[in-house]
Amino acid sequence: MKARVTVTLKNGVLDPQGKAIEGALGTLGFAGVGSVRQGKVFDVELNGTDQAKAEADLKAMCEKLLANTVIENYSVDFA
Amino acid sequence: MKARVTVTLKNGVLDPQGKAIEGALGTLGFAGVGSVRQGKVFDVELNGTDQAKAEADLKAMCEKLLANTVIENYSVDFA
Amino acid sequence: MIRNDFPITPELVASHGLKPDEYERILRITGREPSFTELGIFSAMWNEHCSYKSSKRWLRTLPTKGERVIQGPGENAGVVDIGDGDCVVFKMESHNHPSYIEPYQGAATGVGGILRDVFTMGARPIAAMNSLRFGEPDHPKTRHLVAGVVAGVGGYGNAFGVPTVGGEVNFDARYNGNCLVNAFAAGLAKTDAIFLSEAKGVGLPVVYLGAKTGRDGVGGATMASAEFDDKIDEKRPTVQVGDPFTEKCLLEACLELMASGAVIAIQDMGAAGLTCSAVEMGAKGNLGIELDLDRVPVREDAMSAYEMMLSESQERMLMVLRPEKEEEAQAIFRKWGLDFAIVGKTTDDLRFRIIHQGVEVANLPIKELGDEAPEYDRPRIEPKKPVPLAADDVPQADIAESILKLLASPDQASRRWVYEQYDTMIGGNSLQRPGGDAGVVRVEGHPTKALAFSSDVTPRYCEADPFEGGKQAVAECWRNLTATGAEPLAATDNLNFGNPERPEIMGQFAAAIQGIGEACRELGFPIVSGNVSLYNETNGRGILPTPTIGGVGLIPDWSKMARIAFAAEGQTILHFGAPEGGAKHLGQSIYLRDIHGRADGAPPPVDLAHEKRVGDFMRTLIREGVATAVHDISDGGFALALAEMAMASGIGAKATLPDGVDPIPYLFGEDQGRYLLTVVSTDADRILGEAKAAGILAEKIGETGGDVLVLGESASVSVKDLTAAHESWFPSYMKG
Amino acid sequence: MKSAVVLLPGLNRDRDMIAALTKVSGQAPKTVWQTETELPDVDLIVIPGGFSFGDYLRCGAIAARMPVMRAVADAAKRGVMVMGVCNGFQILLEAGLLPGALMRNSSLQFVCREVKLQVANANTAFTRAYAPNEVIRCPVAHHDGNFFADPDTLARLEGEGRVAFRYAEDTNPNGSLNDIAGILNEDGNVLGLMPHPENLIEAAHGGSDGRGIFESALRVAA
Ligand SMILES: Nc1ncnc2c1ncn2[C@@H]1O[C@H](COP(=O)(O)OP(=O)(O)O)[C@@H](O)[C@H]1O
Ligand SMILES: [Mg+2]
After folding, report:
1. Catalytic annotation on C596?
2. What CA–CA distance (Å, rounded) separates C46 from C373?
3. What is the mean pLDDT of residues B3-21?
4. I want to staple D130 with a disulfide (CB 3.0 to 4.6 A). Which of C485, C569, C602, D119 is the partner?
5. 3-state secondary structure of A41
6. What are the chain D neighbours of B13 within 8 Å (beta carbons)?
7. Chain A closest-CA separation from residue C133 CA (Å)
8. Which residue of A has its CA nearest to D62?
9. Would the CB atoms of D54 and C243 count as touching at under 8 Å?
10. In this protein, which residues make up the domain named Phosphoribosylformylglycinamidine synthase linker (chain C) (predicted)?
11. What count of Cα atoms within 13 Å lies in the side-chain half-sphere of residue C701?
12. Has this prediction a pTM greater than 0.90?
C-alpha cells in the first residue's frame, strides 16, 4: 500500500523558506506570485492491505515523528 | 488561485532523510513500513484566473528554481 | 482579530499575570481604566521577565564596575575595554521555556536573540557559548529535547556564522519538567563606536528595521514568567520561528548603517518586541514616543494593535534616525532585502502613544511604564547550611572502575556529539575550540591578542549551599579562563531559579547572588550584563538553582596560551593549590553521587584569597612560557583532570600517590582552587621553589609518557580505554 | 595572483576566504556583489561557504540563479579558474558548472571536525602543490555534503580524473559516494570542494595543509 503524508506549517507560523522562495521568484521575473509556503511530503510504502489500520498507523507516525505538531499540520492520502 | 507544487526525488537517487526516517520508525516500533521517501510541497498563491497560464508559469518556476531536475521530479495541482 | 474594546474584567487582568494590587497601581498611573492594548502593554512591561520585579533588589548588590568596564548592566550587553581602541561586548540570556515547548525553535531563537543584543551595540559577534541543562537521561522527553536544542543552537549559530566555542551540558531529574538553555554571545567593537538605546532629539523619526511582524509569541514574555502545569500544550501557538538568514542580513545591514552615521539610538526587539524597545528608548532619553501602527510591516492580515505591540517576531530592531540620512539608510536595508519603515517619532511630552487605523489605542506616561513597575522584596527563608560529611565517611570503590564509570557517565562524558554539530571555527580565529578549559578566539587585526570564554556553574553545589555554590560558579569560571593564560576581565550571569513567590526559592536566589557578588568582588571580576529566569518549576517542583556565569578573559600573546593536552612525553606533572596531603573534600562530589548514589555533605568551600593567589601564579607561569599544558581541577577531582589531559593528547602519565593517604579523597576530592600543570623536567624544581616562596602548596606528582594512565598502586588504565569510555556515552545515548 | 570573491547574502565564510587569499597570495581579493553582471579581470574567482539565502529550498539553489552567477559561468567558459568551497560547491552544482548533487549528510546532522583528504589527482590547477595521493588534514563544517551522482556521471568523473579530493582513512563525514570531497569540471578549471582549506593555512589554525590549494592556483596564475 502506498500513502502520501503531507506536512505543512500551521497558519501564522513564520516560513522563512517560503519567504526566500517568494523573493527569488520575483528576482527571476515571475510576476503575480502572492505567497509561497513550503511543506514536506513523505511517500510511505506499507505492508498489509487494511487501509483503516494503515491510516491509523500513519497518523500515529505523524504525531510521534513525521510532523512537529507544535507548528505543523499533517494529512494522509492513499495512492 | 491556489496551487500545490510537489517535488519528489527521482527513483534511484539516494534519500538520506527518508532512510533515517525509515530507521526511526522501526525504532519507534512501527512495523510493516517498507520504504519512506521524502519530498517537498510548495503552496503557491497566484494572482489571475487563467489556470492554463498559471500551470505553464508554475512549470517554468519548477524548471528554473523549485526543482533540481537533475535529481527531482515535480507535479502541479490546483486546489 | 483581537479588538481593542474588550471590557477590562478582573479575569482579564488576572489572565495577563497582573495581581490585583498591580492593577491598582496601573489605575493610579493612568487615572482611568486602561484600554485592552494598554493592559497588554502593562502586562508585558511588568512581568517578571522584563521588569525584574523579584530580582532587582538583589541584582543591585552585584559589583558592576571596574577599570576596564565601559558599560555595565542596563544596556543590551556589557562592554569591556581590551585596549588598542577595541572592546568586547557580551551577554548571556535564557530561552528556557520556549525550548521546552519547541526545542529546535526555542533554542534557535535564543541564540538569535543574544546575537542581536550584541550587534545592536555595534559589535560584530565573534564567539558564542551555550549552557544547557536537561532532565535525567531516562526521562521520556530528554532525548528529544537534547536533539532539538542542540540542532537548534547549531542551526541558528552556524547559518548566522558565529563560532560556538564553549558551553555546558548537564543532566538531572530536577530539570525533567524544565530544561535550561542559556545562550551567550560576545562581539568586538571599537570603543568609540558603541551604540546605545537612549533616544535623543525631539521630532526625530523612529524606524522599524528587519523582518515583518507576525503573531509569533504574542504573550511570550508572559509565558516566560509563568510556571508550567499539565495544560502546557495550550501555550503552544506562541512559538516563534527563527530565521538566521534574515538575522545575518540584519547584522551586515546594521553594521553598515552604524558606519554611515545614520543611527542616533538603536534597540533590538526582544521580549515584548515593539513595546519594550520603544518604551526603553524613549524613557532612557526622557522623550515620548508616538507610533503609527499602520506603518508597521506585517506579514499577516488584520493584526490588532494589541498583537502588534506584543508580537515577539524575531530579527527586528527599532532605531532613532538622523533624518538627513534617511535615503542612505533605506538603500542599505533594501540592498540586504530587509524592511525599513518610519513608524513614528520622538516627542517631548513623555507619553507613549499608539495610533492604529486613525484611533489612539494607547496613551500612557512613558517613564512610569518602567520606573513604576512593581518591585518586590519577596519573603525568603535563609537556606539551611548543609551538614558536612564526617571525616571518616570515605566510601571505597575500585579506582580504575570508578574512573571509567565516571568518564562514561552522562555528566562527565565527552560532549563531542554536541559540539561537532556547531561550527566551532568559522571566522578563522578560533584558537581553542570546545573540549578544553575555555574557548579562545584571536582578536582580528591584532598580531598577538586573544579572548578566552568560559561558562560555568555547579548546580548540585548551589542546591546544597547556594552561597558557596554561587561563589564556586564564579571561581570556576575565573579559573577556567586563567588556565589558558587569560586575565579574567568581567562576567555575565544568567540566574535560573524556581518560583520566587516561594520563600525557600527566594532564599536560594538571594544567597546565590550574595555568593556571586562576594566572589566577583574578591577576584576583581565584575558583572557587566545578565539575565534572570524565574518560575522554572513544574507542578510545584523547582529546578536545581542554576546561576550560570559566563566569563571573558584577555590573553595578550596567544603564542604563549596554555592548553589541556600534554605537549610531549617525559614532562613533569605538577599539582598546585591542594591542601597539605592532597585533596580531602568528598561532600557533594561527583564520586559520591555517581559511584555511591549519595548527594550529601557540604560542597567544597571556596577560599577566594587562595583562589586568586594560585590563579595569579599559574597565569604568570603560562605567560612566561614555562607551562607546557594546564588544566584546572573540578568535577571528579585530580583523577578526572589527569585523565582528561591524557585523552586530549593521547599520551599517558604516571603519577605517584603520597604514602599513607587514602587514595579516594586524594583522587576524587573536589577541593577548589587547584590546577595540574606540566613543565619540562629541568624547570620543575625552580618552579616549586617559586611557588613555595609565593605561599602556594605545590607538589611534583609524576611524569607524562607511555600510553597508560598509572595512579600509583591504585589504578592503571590505558588511554585508549579511557577515551573509549569517555567518547561512547553521548552517541550511544542519542542513538536510543 | 589576482582573485575575486563572490558575495551573496547569507554567505558567511567570505571573511575567512578573503583572509586566506590575502595571506597566501599577498594580495587582497576583489569582492563582487550578487547583482553585478561583470567580473573584474582576475585569475581566480572564489565562491565561499555559508548559507546563501539561508540554504532555503535547496543548498545553493537560489544563489545559483542570481545575476553574478551568469558572469561566473562566462568566466569559467573563458578558462578563468573558479573555486567553490562548501556552499560555493553547492552553488556551482546548482548552477550547472559541475555535475552531481550534494544531499543531506547521512547522519542528518551538521558536522564540524577535522578530516583527512587524499589528493586523488595531483595534476590539476588546484592540486599541483601536493604530491600524488598525499593525505592532508582539513576541517569540514556542513550539513549537506553528501555527494551524489548517477552511475554514468560518477564513472566519468572517476575515469577522467576529475575527482580532486577524497575523504581518506575512514573519515568520510557525510556519506559521499566514493568518498568524494571535491570534483573538477571537464576543462579542469572549475573546482568544487566541501572541506574548508581556508581554515587551515597558518599556525593559529594549528596547521597549514590547506595552503596547497591556493598555492597551486598561484602557480597557474604566475
Ligand atoms: N542577573 C543579572 N545580573 C546583572 N545584570 C542583569 C542581570 N539580569 C539582567 N541584567 C541586566 O538588566 C538589563 C535588562 O536585561 P534584559 O531584559 O534581559 O535585557 P534585554 O532587554 O537586552 O533582553 C540588561 O542590561 C542586563 O544586562
Ligand atoms: Mg536586548
Report:
1. no
2. 6
3. 91
4. D119
5. strand
6. 101, 148
7. 22
8. A24
9. yes
10. 16-53
11. 28
12. yes
Residue B31 lies in domain: 2-78
For the annotated catalytic residues of D, the residue numbers are 86, 196, 198
Rounded CA gap, D10 and C156, in Å? 12
- The CA-based dihedral angle spanning residues C347, C349, C352, C356, taken in that order and rounded to the nearest 10 degrees: -70
- C529 labeled binding residue: no
Residue in the structure block whose three cell numbers are 519573603: C379
Lowest-pLDDT range, B46-50, C166-170, C384-388, D171-175? B46-50
Do residues C175 and C146 touch, judged by C-beta distance below 8 A? Answer: no
Q: Residues lining ligand 1, judged by CB closer than 6 Å?
A: C 50, 59, 62, 73-76, 91, 93, 117, 270-271, 493, 495, 527, 529-532
The ipTM (two decimal places) reads 0.92
Q: Do A14 and C300 lie within an 8 Å CB cutoff?
A: no
Q: Which residue has the cell 546548482?
A: D94
Q: DSSP 3-state assignment of D139?
A: strand
- Lowest model confidence (mean pLDDT) among A31-35, B63-67, C469-473, D34-38: A31-35
H or E, element range at A10: none
Closest Cβ–Cβ partner in B13, B14, B65 for D61: B65
* Sheet strands (E) in chain D: 3-7, 30-33, 44-47, 81-85, 101-103, 111-119, 135-142, 146-148, 163-168, 180-184, 190-193
The CATH topology of domain D3-221 is Rossmann fold (3.40.50)
C contact residues 189-218, partner A, Cβ 8 Å cutoff: 214-216
Q: Angle at Cα C70 formed by Cα C68 and Cα C76, nearest 5°?
A: 130
Beta-sheet strand order (sheet of C527-533): C430-432, C439-442, C450-456, C546-555, C487-496, C527-533
- Residues in C touching D20 (Cβ below 8 Å): 428
- At residue B28, the pLDDT reads 86
Looking at the complex, report in whole angstroms how far the Cα of residue B71 sits from the nearest Cα belonging to chain A: 16
Residue with cell 491509523: A56
Domain ranges of chain C: 1-57+196-373, 562-736
How would DSSP label each residue in D155-208?
HHHHHTT-EEEEEETT--SS--GGGEEEEE-TTS-EEEESS-GGGSSBGGGTB-
Is C714 known as a binding-site position? no
C101 in A contact zone (CB under 8 Å): yes
Residue C169 Rama label (left phi>0; alpha psi -120 to 50; beta):
beta
Structural domain tally of chain A?
1
For residue C240, say whether it is annotated as part of any ligand binding site: yes
Cβ–Cβ of B71/D106 closer than 8 Å? Answer: no
- Residue C91, marked binder: yes
Averaged pLDDT score across all residues of chain D: 97
Q: Do B66 and D57 lie within an 8 Å CB cutoff?
A: yes
Query: Alpha carbon D163 to chain centroid distance?
Result: 12
Q: How far apart are CA D47 and CA D40, in angstroms?
A: 14
Instruction: Give every residue of chain C whose pLDDT is below 50, as ranges.
Output: 1, 221-225, 229-237
Ligand 2 centroid, distance to C45 Cα (angstroms):
14
Residue with cell 548533487: D101
- What is the distance between the alpha carbons of residues C614 and C634, in angstroms, rounded to a whole number? 15
Q: Which residue of D has its CA nearest to A37?
A: D57
Which member of A12, A16, A68 has the closest CB to residue C243? A16
Q: Which residue has the cell 604566475?
A: D222
CATH number of C1-57+196-373: 3.90.650.10
Q: Report d(CA C261, CA C276) in Å as an integer.
A: 25
Question: Residue C470: its pLDDT value, please?
Answer: 98
Would you kindly state where each structural domain of chain D is located, as residue ranges? 3-221
Query: What's the CATH code of the domain at B21?
Result: 3.30.1280.10
Q: What is the pLDDT of residue C238?
A: 63
Q: Give me the CATH code for the C562-736 domain, please.
A: 3.90.650.10
Instruction: Convert the pLDDT of each residue in D51-62 to its tens digit.
Output: 999 999 999 999
**A12 with C215: Cβ contact below 8 A:** yes
